[in-house]
Amino acid sequence: MFGPRRSVLSALSVLLLLAATTLSAQRPQTREGFWLNIGAGYATLGCNNCNGREEGGAGTISLGGTLSQKWQLGANVSAWTKDQSGVNWTVGLVSGVAKFYPSATGGFFLQAGAGVAAVDITVNNVTGTKKGVGSMLGAGYDIRIGRNVSLTPFWNRVQTWYNDFDDDLDFSQFGLSITIH
Known about the structure:
single chain; mainly beta; Porin; 8-stranded antiparallel barrel; 1 helix; 64% strand
């Protein structure tokens, strides 16, 4: 069953994507130099042996440089967090990222990255941390709202693996970000 947050986020994403053609026609999709992306949204966390998925908040920040109208390289941080009944979980990935725009003049992109993962669990002010490796696959759409600024609805899937930890963790995040090109 869809919760209210997921329904609102889904409706907002559909509206933004429907408006994308009109907004894109007004502002050209040019990519050059440095870029920065900051976003927030909703995510679900799961694992190999979990019963269901946990809902929580999500965030992402990326920055890098432009190689061409179709390729950008940079670094990305993606995270999921939840605080409930005195227990705080945070799962994150710091990675290199490559973004590919299939159309040099379009706003749709695919992205992928790999890097260092961590899971932090805090119970009664005692924190335990496990480090591992992870990967990220994602997609988004830059909707130009200014010469060098876009609203960017996005989806990222993050998979993490840890030594000496019973379950590998994954999260899927949906959100909206601001991109400065």
